[in-house]
Amino acid sequence: MNDRDVIGVLNDLIETSKDGEYGFAKSAERVKAPALKETLQRRAADCARGAAELQTLVVRFGGKPEEGGSAAGALHRGWVSIKEALTPGSGDHAVLEECERGEDSALAAYRKAMKEELPAEVRQVLERQMQGVQANHDQIKALRDSTPA
Q1: Local structure of residue 91 (DSSP, 8 states)
Q2: What is the distance between the alpha carbons of residues 12 and 6, in angstroms, rounded to a whole number?
């Protein structure tokens, strides 16, 4: 895999991380429970740190890092907004369902990236970040399961 290919994989994951940052931040604005709001804000910050780490790697490999989210993420956010508008009074449970859906997508993106022939330093970062995405997913799922619908 050449540097340009590595940069492409990393930029795809930057978009995924930016989607997560935006999604968690917007979700934190929508939930009512203060502890849940705080948790989602922390997840947004984690995604931002992950994106920054990937952007540093892109620069190290001679590329220009992505700055924003993906088109698919924008579509998902649009769907969430429409769904929210059409479902007045949707509670924290519904927001957590959308967060879990977003984390499912992020896990799929990391799994796809890990199938590539990546340099060891990149693979190491992605493996660690993927563990973080899995932990986020598991935490959001547990919160969703314990939040009344």
Answers
A1: -
A2: 10
Burial environment of residue 53 by CB neighbours within 10 A (0 to 12, 13 to 18, 19 or more): middle
Q: Are 114 and 130 in contact (CB under 8 A)?
A: yes
CB neighbour class for 124 (10 Å; exposed up to 12, middle 13-18, buried from 19): exposed
Residue 86: band (very low, low, confident or very high) from pLDDT cuts 50, 70, 90: very low
CB atoms < 10 A from the CB of 71, how many? 10
Q: Which of 53, 38, 44 lies closest to 136, judged by CA? A: 44
Tens digits of residue pLDDT in 7-27: 999 999 999 999 889 889 988
Sketch the domain layout of the chain as residue ranges: 3-146
| Structural fold of domain 3-146 | Ferritin (1.20.1260)
In whole angstroms, what is the distance from residue 3 CA to residue 118 CA? 9
E strands of the chain, at which residues? Answer: none
Could you count the other beta carbons within 10 Å of the beta carbon of residue 146? 9
23, 11, 24: which is closest to 51 by C-alpha? 11
